[in-house]
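INFO  loader      accepted 1 record
INFO  loader      residues=434
INFO  predictor   begin
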Amino acid sequence: MNARNKALNELTALSRFVFCSRNSTQAEWLGAALGKWGTLLQEKAEVAELLPRIVELNPLLVLLDFSGVEHAHDSASVITADFLGTTAHAIELAQALAKKAPGLPLVAVGSMTFPEGAIAALRAGVSDFIDVSASEEEARDVVQRVLAKAAARAPAQVKRGQLVTLLGVRPGIGTSTLAVHLADMIQQRGATAAGSKRLPTDSRVALLDLGLPAGDGKLYLSAAGNFDFAEAVRNLRRFDETLVHTALPRSPGGVTVISLPHSLSEMRTVSHHDALALLDRLRLYFDVLIADLGGFSNHEFIANLAGAADQVWLVTDQSVGALVSLAGTLQELNGRHPDDGKRRLVVNRYDDRFGMAAAQIAERFKLPLLATLPERTLKLTSSANRGKLLHEVAPHDHYVRAIDGLIDGLLEHDEVVPHKTKMGHWLPKIMLRK
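INFO  predictor   done
INFO  writer      dumping C-alpha coordinates
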Protein backbone atom coordinates (compact mmCIF):
# COMPACT_ATOMS: atom_id res chain seq x y z
CA MET A 1 0.00 0.00 0.00
CA ASN A 2 1.53 3.35 -0.97
CA ALA A 3 1.85 6.33 1.36
CA ARG A 4 -1.35 7.95 0.15
CA ASN A 5 -3.42 4.82 0.67
CA LYS A 6 -2.00 4.30 4.12
CA ALA A 7 -2.69 7.89 5.16
CA LEU A 8 -6.17 8.18 3.69
CA ASN A 9 -7.94 4.94 4.40
CA GLU A 10 -10.79 5.80 6.77
CA LEU A 11 -12.82 8.79 5.49
CA THR A 12 -16.07 9.40 7.42
CA ALA A 13 -19.27 11.37 6.97
CA LEU A 14 -17.76 14.16 9.09
CA SER A 15 -15.16 15.08 6.45
CA ARG A 16 -15.46 18.68 5.32
CA PHE A 17 -13.76 20.92 2.77
CA VAL A 18 -14.15 24.70 2.94
CA PHE A 19 -14.01 26.85 -0.21
CA CYS A 20 -13.55 30.55 0.57
CA SER A 21 -15.00 32.34 -2.42
CA ARG A 22 -18.02 34.13 -3.82
CA ASN A 23 -17.76 32.12 -7.01
CA SER A 24 -20.74 29.75 -6.83
CA THR A 25 -19.99 28.16 -10.20
CA GLN A 26 -16.57 27.02 -9.03
CA ALA A 27 -18.07 25.91 -5.70
CA GLU A 28 -20.50 23.64 -7.55
CA TRP A 29 -17.66 22.20 -9.65
CA LEU A 30 -15.50 21.53 -6.59
CA GLY A 31 -18.47 20.06 -4.72
CA ALA A 32 -19.02 17.59 -7.54
CA ALA A 33 -15.31 16.72 -7.70
CA LEU A 34 -14.95 16.11 -3.95
CA GLY A 35 -18.50 15.04 -3.14
CA LYS A 36 -17.79 11.32 -2.72
CA TRP A 37 -15.21 12.11 -0.03
CA GLY A 38 -17.14 14.61 2.07
CA THR A 39 -19.03 17.90 2.10
CA LEU A 40 -17.84 21.12 0.47
CA LEU A 41 -18.87 24.24 2.39
CA GLN A 42 -18.70 27.60 0.63
CA GLU A 43 -17.83 30.58 2.86
CA LYS A 44 -18.12 34.14 1.54
CA ALA A 45 -17.39 36.33 4.58
CA GLU A 46 -14.50 38.70 5.18
CA VAL A 47 -11.29 37.42 6.77
CA ALA A 48 -12.03 38.61 10.30
CA GLU A 49 -15.27 36.64 10.34
CA LEU A 50 -13.95 33.70 8.30
CA LEU A 51 -10.97 32.89 10.49
CA PRO A 52 -12.86 31.74 13.63
CA ARG A 53 -15.50 30.15 11.43
CA ILE A 54 -12.92 27.94 9.70
CA VAL A 55 -11.35 26.95 13.02
CA GLU A 56 -14.82 26.03 14.28
CA LEU A 57 -15.66 23.96 11.19
CA ASN A 58 -12.40 22.02 11.52
CA PRO A 59 -12.19 21.05 7.81
CA LEU A 60 -9.80 18.60 6.18
CA LEU A 61 -8.45 21.42 4.05
CA VAL A 62 -9.27 24.95 2.91
CA LEU A 63 -9.53 25.97 -0.74
CA LEU A 64 -8.71 29.60 -1.53
CA ASP A 65 -9.96 31.47 -4.60
CA PHE A 66 -7.09 32.82 -6.69
CA SER A 67 -9.12 32.89 -9.91
CA GLY A 68 -9.76 36.63 -9.76
CA VAL A 69 -13.39 36.35 -10.92
CA GLU A 70 -16.71 35.96 -9.15
CA HIS A 71 -18.72 34.51 -12.02
CA ALA A 72 -17.99 31.94 -14.71
CA HIS A 73 -18.61 34.38 -17.55
CA ASP A 74 -16.12 36.90 -16.19
CA SER A 75 -13.18 35.36 -18.01
CA ALA A 76 -10.27 37.75 -17.99
CA SER A 77 -7.08 38.07 -19.94
CA VAL A 78 -5.78 41.07 -18.01
CA ILE A 79 -5.52 41.93 -14.34
CA THR A 80 -8.89 43.32 -13.32
CA ALA A 81 -10.38 44.91 -10.23
CA ASP A 82 -12.05 41.57 -9.51
CA PHE A 83 -8.67 39.86 -9.57
CA LEU A 84 -7.12 42.41 -7.23
CA GLY A 85 -9.99 42.18 -4.79
CA THR A 86 -10.43 38.41 -4.60
CA THR A 87 -6.69 37.76 -4.64
CA ALA A 88 -6.05 40.24 -1.83
CA HIS A 89 -8.74 38.45 0.18
CA ALA A 90 -7.18 35.03 -0.53
CA ILE A 91 -3.66 36.23 0.34
CA GLU A 92 -4.82 37.80 3.61
CA LEU A 93 -6.71 34.63 4.58
CA ALA A 94 -3.79 32.36 3.66
CA GLN A 95 -1.43 34.38 5.84
CA ALA A 96 -3.90 34.49 8.74
CA LEU A 97 -4.53 30.73 8.60
CA ALA A 98 -0.80 30.02 8.48
CA LYS A 99 -0.54 31.71 11.89
CA LYS A 100 -3.85 30.59 13.43
CA ALA A 101 -3.92 26.98 12.16
CA PRO A 102 -0.44 26.17 10.84
CA GLY A 103 -1.24 22.48 10.32
CA LEU A 104 -4.32 23.12 8.18
CA PRO A 105 -3.67 22.28 4.50
CA LEU A 106 -4.36 25.09 2.00
CA VAL A 107 -5.01 24.69 -1.73
CA ALA A 108 -5.31 27.46 -4.29
CA VAL A 109 -8.12 27.37 -6.86
CA GLY A 110 -7.88 29.13 -10.21
CA SER A 111 -7.26 28.60 -13.89
CA MET A 112 -4.00 28.18 -15.78
CA THR A 113 -5.53 30.28 -18.53
CA PHE A 114 -4.92 33.15 -16.10
CA PRO A 115 -1.50 32.31 -14.55
CA GLU A 116 -1.35 35.49 -12.45
CA GLY A 117 -3.55 33.67 -9.92
CA ALA A 118 -1.12 30.77 -9.55
CA ILE A 119 1.78 33.20 -9.17
CA ALA A 120 -0.08 35.13 -6.46
CA ALA A 121 -0.83 31.86 -4.63
CA LEU A 122 2.85 30.87 -4.63
CA ARG A 123 3.82 34.27 -3.24
CA ALA A 124 1.23 33.80 -0.48
CA GLY A 125 2.83 30.49 0.46
CA VAL A 126 0.18 28.22 -1.13
CA SER A 127 2.04 25.83 -3.41
CA ASP A 128 -0.74 23.38 -4.33
CA PHE A 129 -3.09 24.47 -7.09
CA ILE A 130 -6.37 23.16 -8.54
CA ASP A 131 -7.00 24.19 -12.13
CA VAL A 132 -10.77 24.48 -12.65
CA SER A 133 -10.27 24.39 -16.40
CA ALA A 134 -8.87 20.85 -16.04
CA SER A 135 -10.74 17.65 -15.08
CA GLU A 136 -12.34 16.71 -11.76
CA GLU A 137 -9.94 13.76 -11.63
CA GLU A 138 -6.98 16.15 -11.59
CA ALA A 139 -8.61 18.10 -8.75
CA ARG A 140 -8.95 14.90 -6.73
CA ASP A 141 -5.30 14.05 -7.42
CA VAL A 142 -4.24 17.40 -5.94
CA VAL A 143 -6.39 16.89 -2.83
CA GLN A 144 -5.06 13.37 -2.32
CA ARG A 145 -1.48 14.57 -2.55
CA VAL A 146 -2.05 17.45 -0.11
CA LEU A 147 -3.83 15.32 2.48
CA ALA A 148 -1.21 12.59 2.26
CA LYS A 149 1.52 15.14 2.99
CA ALA A 150 -0.50 16.53 5.93
CA ALA A 151 -1.07 13.06 7.36
CA ALA A 152 2.66 12.30 7.16
CA ARG A 153 3.37 15.42 9.24
CA ALA A 154 0.66 14.66 11.85
CA PRO A 155 1.63 13.49 15.37
CA ALA A 156 1.31 9.80 16.13
CA GLN A 157 -1.80 9.61 18.31
CA VAL A 158 -4.39 11.70 20.14
CA LYS A 159 -6.82 10.18 22.59
CA ARG A 160 -10.43 10.51 21.47
CA GLY A 161 -13.39 8.98 23.24
CA GLN A 162 -15.60 6.35 21.68
CA LEU A 163 -18.93 7.47 20.26
CA VAL A 164 -21.62 4.80 20.51
CA THR A 165 -24.98 5.56 18.92
CA LEU A 166 -28.06 3.78 20.25
CA LEU A 167 -30.59 4.01 17.45
CA GLY A 168 -33.98 2.97 18.78
CA VAL A 169 -36.17 2.10 15.83
CA ARG A 170 -39.23 3.66 17.47
CA PRO A 171 -40.19 5.38 20.72
CA GLY A 172 -41.11 3.27 23.72
CA ILE A 173 -38.96 0.17 23.22
CA GLY A 174 -36.52 0.92 26.03
CA THR A 175 -33.64 2.67 24.24
CA SER A 176 -33.35 5.47 26.80
CA THR A 177 -33.47 2.97 29.65
CA LEU A 178 -30.62 1.05 28.06
CA ALA A 179 -28.65 4.26 27.44
CA VAL A 180 -28.82 5.51 31.04
CA HIS A 181 -27.89 2.13 32.52
CA LEU A 182 -25.01 1.79 30.07
CA ALA A 183 -23.68 5.30 30.78
CA ASP A 184 -23.97 5.02 34.57
CA MET A 185 -22.43 1.56 34.73
CA ILE A 186 -19.47 2.59 32.54
CA GLN A 187 -18.96 5.63 34.76
CA GLN A 188 -19.07 3.45 37.89
CA ARG A 189 -16.64 0.97 36.43
CA GLY A 190 -14.22 3.72 35.48
CA ALA A 191 -14.39 5.29 38.94
CA THR A 192 -13.76 1.90 40.55
CA ALA A 193 -10.79 1.19 38.31
CA ALA A 194 -9.27 4.60 39.00
CA GLY A 195 -9.60 4.12 42.76
CA SER A 196 -8.22 6.98 44.79
CA LYS A 197 -6.80 8.68 41.67
CA ARG A 198 -10.25 9.86 40.59
CA LEU A 199 -13.09 11.43 42.49
CA PRO A 200 -16.37 9.47 42.28
CA THR A 201 -17.97 12.38 40.44
CA ASP A 202 -15.21 12.92 37.86
CA SER A 203 -17.12 12.58 34.61
CA ARG A 204 -15.54 10.45 31.90
CA VAL A 205 -18.86 9.41 30.31
CA ALA A 206 -21.33 11.68 28.52
CA LEU A 207 -24.89 10.82 27.55
CA LEU A 208 -26.28 12.67 24.53
CA ASP A 209 -29.91 12.49 25.57
CA LEU A 210 -31.43 13.06 22.13
CA GLY A 211 -34.22 10.51 22.21
CA LEU A 212 -37.95 11.15 22.34
CA PRO A 213 -39.77 11.84 24.58
CA ALA A 214 -37.22 14.54 25.28
CA GLY A 215 -35.32 14.59 28.55
CA ASP A 216 -35.99 11.03 29.72
CA GLY A 217 -32.29 10.27 30.16
CA LYS A 218 -31.74 13.37 32.25
CA LEU A 219 -34.76 12.45 34.37
CA TYR A 220 -33.69 8.84 34.96
CA LEU A 221 -30.17 9.93 35.95
CA SER A 222 -31.40 12.83 38.13
CA ALA A 223 -28.95 15.14 36.36
CA ALA A 224 -28.88 18.76 37.49
CA GLY A 225 -28.49 21.64 35.05
CA ASN A 226 -30.21 23.11 32.00
CA PHE A 227 -27.40 23.47 29.46
CA ASP A 228 -28.97 21.69 26.46
CA PHE A 229 -27.74 20.44 23.10
CA ALA A 230 -28.77 23.51 21.11
CA GLU A 231 -27.07 25.80 23.63
CA ALA A 232 -23.95 23.64 23.52
CA VAL A 233 -23.77 24.04 19.73
CA ARG A 234 -24.22 27.80 20.05
CA ASN A 235 -21.31 27.90 22.52
CA LEU A 236 -19.03 25.62 20.53
CA ARG A 237 -16.31 28.27 20.26
CA ARG A 238 -16.19 28.54 24.07
CA PHE A 239 -15.83 24.80 24.66
CA ASP A 240 -12.88 23.97 26.90
CA GLU A 241 -12.18 21.76 29.90
CA THR A 242 -13.64 24.29 32.34
CA LEU A 243 -16.94 24.73 30.51
CA VAL A 244 -17.36 20.99 29.96
CA HIS A 245 -16.93 20.15 33.63
CA THR A 246 -18.80 23.09 35.13
CA ALA A 247 -21.65 24.15 32.83
CA LEU A 248 -22.90 20.81 31.50
CA PRO A 249 -25.54 18.93 33.56
CA ARG A 250 -24.15 16.15 35.72
CA SER A 251 -25.77 13.17 37.46
CA PRO A 252 -24.96 12.35 41.11
CA GLY A 253 -22.87 9.44 39.81
CA GLY A 254 -20.82 11.69 37.54
CA VAL A 255 -22.39 11.13 34.10
CA THR A 256 -22.55 14.30 32.00
CA VAL A 257 -25.93 14.63 30.27
CA ILE A 258 -26.72 16.84 27.28
CA SER A 259 -30.41 16.75 26.45
CA LEU A 260 -32.63 18.18 23.76
CA PRO A 261 -33.92 21.71 24.49
CA HIS A 262 -37.33 22.10 26.13
CA SER A 263 -38.57 23.66 22.92
CA LEU A 264 -37.66 21.28 20.11
CA SER A 265 -38.07 24.13 17.62
CA GLU A 266 -34.63 25.35 18.77
CA MET A 267 -33.09 22.34 17.05
CA ARG A 268 -34.05 23.88 13.70
CA THR A 269 -31.27 26.41 14.21
CA VAL A 270 -28.67 23.64 14.71
CA SER A 271 -26.89 22.81 11.47
CA HIS A 272 -25.71 19.27 10.94
CA HIS A 273 -22.06 20.19 10.55
CA ASP A 274 -22.15 22.26 13.78
CA ALA A 275 -23.76 19.36 15.65
CA LEU A 276 -21.10 16.98 14.40
CA ALA A 277 -18.37 19.48 15.26
CA LEU A 278 -19.74 19.53 18.82
CA LEU A 279 -19.55 15.75 19.05
CA ASP A 280 -16.00 15.80 17.79
CA ARG A 281 -15.08 18.39 20.43
CA LEU A 282 -16.75 16.39 23.22
CA ARG A 283 -14.74 13.31 22.29
CA LEU A 284 -11.65 15.16 23.48
CA TYR A 285 -13.03 15.34 27.03
CA PHE A 286 -14.80 12.01 27.57
CA ASP A 287 -13.73 8.39 27.31
CA VAL A 288 -17.18 7.32 26.05
CA LEU A 289 -20.09 9.22 24.51
CA ILE A 290 -23.42 7.40 24.46
CA ALA A 291 -25.85 8.95 21.97
CA ASP A 292 -29.47 7.99 22.61
CA LEU A 293 -31.47 8.51 19.41
CA GLY A 294 -34.50 6.46 20.37
CA GLY A 295 -37.45 7.84 18.42
CA PHE A 296 -35.52 10.82 17.00
CA SER A 297 -37.19 11.73 13.72
CA ASN A 298 -34.63 13.73 11.71
CA HIS A 299 -33.32 11.06 9.35
CA GLU A 300 -30.48 13.16 7.93
CA PHE A 301 -29.17 13.96 11.43
CA ILE A 302 -29.44 10.29 12.42
CA ALA A 303 -27.54 9.15 9.33
CA ASN A 304 -24.77 11.73 9.87
CA LEU A 305 -24.41 10.82 13.54
CA ALA A 306 -24.36 7.13 12.70
CA GLY A 307 -21.67 7.78 10.12
CA ALA A 308 -19.54 9.57 12.72
CA ALA A 309 -19.97 6.90 15.42
CA ASP A 310 -17.52 4.15 16.26
CA GLN A 311 -20.42 1.77 16.84
CA VAL A 312 -24.11 1.91 15.90
CA TRP A 313 -26.52 -0.23 17.90
CA LEU A 314 -29.97 -0.64 16.38
CA VAL A 315 -32.35 -1.33 19.26
CA THR A 316 -35.60 -3.21 18.65
CA ASP A 317 -37.91 -5.62 20.38
CA GLN A 318 -39.80 -8.59 18.99
CA SER A 319 -43.07 -6.78 18.24
CA VAL A 320 -44.35 -6.52 14.68
CA GLY A 321 -44.43 -2.72 14.88
CA ALA A 322 -40.80 -2.52 15.98
CA LEU A 323 -39.64 -4.89 13.25
CA VAL A 324 -41.45 -2.86 10.60
CA SER A 325 -39.76 0.26 12.01
CA LEU A 326 -36.40 -1.52 11.93
CA ALA A 327 -36.85 -2.22 8.23
CA GLY A 328 -37.69 1.44 7.59
CA THR A 329 -34.73 2.66 9.66
CA LEU A 330 -32.31 0.48 7.73
CA GLN A 331 -33.77 1.66 4.44
CA GLU A 332 -33.24 5.30 5.49
CA LEU A 333 -29.69 4.62 6.62
CA ASN A 334 -28.77 2.70 3.49
CA GLY A 335 -30.23 5.43 1.32
CA ARG A 336 -27.89 8.00 2.86
CA HIS A 337 -24.79 6.00 3.81
CA PRO A 338 -23.82 2.44 2.84
CA ASP A 339 -23.35 -0.03 5.68
CA ASP A 340 -19.76 0.44 6.90
CA GLY A 341 -19.69 -2.56 9.23
CA LYS A 342 -20.37 -0.60 12.44
CA ARG A 343 -24.02 -1.58 12.82
CA ARG A 344 -25.09 -4.15 15.40
CA LEU A 345 -28.48 -5.42 16.53
CA VAL A 346 -29.70 -5.28 20.14
CA VAL A 347 -32.99 -7.05 20.84
CA ASN A 348 -34.54 -5.56 23.97
CA ARG A 349 -37.28 -7.02 26.20
CA TYR A 350 -36.39 -10.39 24.80
CA ASP A 351 -38.35 -13.53 25.65
CA ASP A 352 -38.30 -16.76 23.66
CA ARG A 353 -42.06 -17.05 24.15
CA PHE A 354 -42.74 -13.80 22.24
CA GLY A 355 -42.20 -15.36 18.83
CA MET A 356 -39.35 -14.66 16.43
CA ALA A 357 -35.96 -15.54 17.92
CA ALA A 358 -33.21 -12.93 18.10
CA ALA A 359 -31.02 -14.91 15.71
CA GLN A 360 -33.87 -15.02 13.18
CA ILE A 361 -34.33 -11.24 13.42
CA ALA A 362 -30.61 -10.71 12.89
CA GLU A 363 -30.58 -13.03 9.90
CA ARG A 364 -33.71 -11.45 8.43
CA PHE A 365 -32.19 -7.95 8.55
CA LYS A 366 -28.60 -9.03 7.84
CA LEU A 367 -27.24 -7.49 11.05
CA PRO A 368 -24.73 -9.00 13.49
CA LEU A 369 -26.52 -9.79 16.76
CA LEU A 370 -24.72 -7.91 19.53
CA ALA A 371 -26.95 -8.74 22.50
CA THR A 372 -30.36 -9.71 23.79
CA LEU A 373 -31.63 -7.88 26.86
CA PRO A 374 -34.22 -9.80 28.89
CA GLU A 375 -37.78 -8.64 29.52
CA ARG A 376 -37.63 -6.71 32.82
CA THR A 377 -40.35 -4.09 32.48
CA LEU A 378 -41.70 -4.63 36.00
CA LYS A 379 -38.33 -4.42 37.74
CA LEU A 380 -37.11 -1.50 35.63
CA THR A 381 -40.30 0.48 36.25
CA SER A 382 -40.20 -0.32 39.96
CA SER A 383 -36.60 0.87 40.35
CA ALA A 384 -37.26 4.01 38.25
CA ASN A 385 -40.23 4.89 40.46
CA ARG A 386 -37.85 4.79 43.42
CA GLY A 387 -35.46 7.15 41.66
CA LYS A 388 -32.93 4.37 41.12
CA LEU A 389 -31.41 2.46 38.24
CA LEU A 390 -31.75 -1.31 38.28
CA HIS A 391 -28.08 -2.01 38.99
CA GLU A 392 -28.36 0.12 42.13
CA VAL A 393 -31.08 -2.08 43.62
CA ALA A 394 -30.42 -5.45 41.94
CA PRO A 395 -26.77 -5.60 40.80
CA HIS A 396 -27.03 -9.28 39.86
CA ASP A 397 -30.18 -9.03 37.75
CA HIS A 398 -30.02 -10.66 34.31
CA TYR A 399 -30.59 -7.27 32.64
CA VAL A 400 -27.66 -5.75 34.53
CA ARG A 401 -25.43 -8.70 33.71
CA ALA A 402 -26.31 -8.37 30.02
CA ILE A 403 -25.28 -4.70 30.05
CA ASP A 404 -22.06 -5.66 31.83
CA GLY A 405 -21.34 -7.87 28.84
CA LEU A 406 -21.93 -4.94 26.48
CA ILE A 407 -19.51 -2.82 28.50
CA ASP A 408 -16.89 -5.57 28.34
CA GLY A 409 -17.20 -5.49 24.57
CA LEU A 410 -16.92 -1.69 24.48
CA LEU A 411 -13.78 -1.65 26.58
CA GLU A 412 -12.25 -4.40 24.46
CA HIS A 413 -13.13 -2.43 21.30
CA ASP A 414 -11.52 0.67 22.81
CA GLU A 415 -8.26 -1.22 23.35
CA VAL A 416 -7.97 -2.55 19.81
CA VAL A 417 -9.12 0.53 17.86
CA PRO A 418 -6.37 3.20 17.71
CA HIS A 419 -7.33 6.79 18.50
CA LYS A 420 -5.90 8.66 15.54
CA THR A 421 -4.80 12.22 15.41
CA LYS A 422 -7.28 14.74 14.16
CA MET A 423 -5.77 14.52 10.69
CA GLY A 424 -5.45 10.74 10.75
CA HIS A 425 -9.01 10.37 11.93
CA TRP A 426 -10.47 12.53 9.19
CA LEU A 427 -8.49 10.96 6.41
CA PRO A 428 -10.35 7.78 5.89
CA LYS A 429 -10.84 5.86 2.60
CA ILE A 430 -10.10 8.61 0.09
CA MET A 431 -7.53 6.64 -1.83
CA LEU A 432 -9.53 3.45 -1.73
CA ARG A 433 -12.56 5.23 -3.19
CA LYS A 434 -10.77 6.88 -6.08
